[in-house]
UniProtKB/TrEMBL annotation:
Protein name per the record: SDR family oxidoreductase
Residue ranges of domain NAD-dependent epimerase/dehydratase in the record: 3-234
Entries under Gene3D superfamilies matching the protein: NAD(P)-binding Rossmann-like Domain (3.40.50.720)
InterPro entries in the record: Epimerase_deHydtase, Lipid_A_modif_metabolic_enz, NAD(P)-bd_dom_sf
CDD domains referenced in this protein's UniProt entry, alphabetically: SDR_e
Length: 328
């Protein structure tokens, strides 16, 4: 079975692609490689690497592709605000284009790794049937893409939406702009865990290998179970308030709980139910925040990760690329 992964060189993609190869899939890894392509394995008979843009690639690329996991995007809220028009053109129009071409070219399944950020601010625990409340360009583009791509689904074209919790854990294309990863790096560099104000906001979390595992479950499940369905990806016990999460991170890696505040008060806060993915797909995460924090800590201590690598703060790297005149 041949799987096309867009955004394959990214934080999630560079974990997902080796997992797919391990499972015996043929993979086409498509990406603009804004963060470099050296994080992926070398091309071989099972893996083809294409430097292409989801907005412009030729549709022939999709010949003989069985399924698509569409990860390419400007991947967080601050990056989404750098140039909202570009964000819409990639995160909404680009994905809608990929899904439309996929259907046209006879691809059987399209998996859209969206985000729980579509819930925005909520007082109650939300599930897939709850009202959404996207607060940023990034979240609004995700939601519009979800809605429009779902309309393409039919008996020959399975569409699955995965609303991922905030991801954590080691990846070769590291992101220290994600909460748990950033907390560990902050302590590693400055002896203090950075906490986004005011720390009472709720957020669900999932490890990068676990969210990749969810994508593979969505790929392999019978169509009748997943077609036109939305699944939150995470687990009920990994909904945390940010201040409590920082305490857990400190405890897990055995450091004194020293912290510093940053940013303006975060207006996003949501607690999410993950019962559906557990029930329908049997999804159980292997990691929790503590285990993920220790993994990142060990990778920093051993030198496997460079805390000062400028590519690890997504918004700063895109600002640099735009300044350098790279066509984003
Ligand atoms: N990491 C998280 O916490 C998280 C949570 C929820 C949802 N998501 C979503 O999962 C997906 C992957 O996230 P990630 O953390 O791996 O992000 P990432 O930024 O590490 O990876 C995204 C990849 O997409 C590529 N890309 C960007 N624009 C492109 C274009 N026009 N054409 C081709 N490639 C392009 C980039 O080069 C990059 O390699 C994104 O859609 C993101 O919004 C991530």
């Amino acid at each position: 079975m041949r799987i096309l992964v867009t955004g394959a060189g990214g934080y999630i993609g560079s974990i997902l692609v080796p997992m797919l190869l391990e499972e015996g899939y043929e993979v086409i890894a498509l990406d603009r490689f804004f963060f470099g392509r050296e994080k992926l394995p070398q091309e071989n008979s099972q893996l083809k690497i294409l430097e292409e843009d989801i907005r412009f690639f030729e549709k022939d690329i999709l010949e003989d592709v069985d399924a698509i996991i569409d990860l390419a995007a400007l991947s967080n809220d601050p990056t989404g605000e750098l140039d909202p028009v570009k964000t819409w053109s990639i995160n909404y129009l680009g994905r809608f284009r990929v899904a439309t071409l996929a259907k046209l070219m006879g691809v059987k399944r399209y998996i859209f790794p969206s985000s729980c950020s579509v819930y925005g601010f909520q007082d109650e625990i939300v599930d897939e049937t709850s009202d959404t409340n996207p607060l940023t360009t990034y979240a609004k583009a995700n939601l519009k893409a979800e809605k429009d791509i779902l309309t393409l689904a039919d008996n020959n074209f399975t569409v699955v939406i995965l609303r991922q919790a905030t991801v954590y854990g080691f990846s070769p294309r590291m992101r220290f702009d994600l909460a748990i990863n950033g907390m560990v790096k902050g302590f590693f560099k400055n002896g203090k865990i950075p906490i986004l104000r005011d720390g009472t906001q709720w957020r669900p979390f999932v490890h990068v290998k676990d969210t990749s595992k969810a994508m593979i479950l969505a790929l392999e499940a019978p169509s009748e179970k997943v077609n036109k369905e939305i699944f939150n990806v995470g687990s009920d016990d990994q909904n945390y308030q940010i201040f409590d999460l920082a305490k857990r991170v400190a405890e897990a890696i055995g450091i004194p709980f020293e912290y510093e505040w940053y940013g303006l008060p975060d207006h996003r806060s949501y607690r999410v139910s993950f019962k559906k993915i557990k029930k329908v797909l049997g999804f159980e995460p292997e990691y929790n925040a503590e285990k993920g924090a220790v993994e990142v800590w060990e990778a920093l201590k051993s030198g496997k990760l460079d805390p000062d690598d400028p590519k690890t703060i997504t918004v700063e790297w895109y600002k640099y690329l735009l300044k350098e005149g790279v066509m984003v």
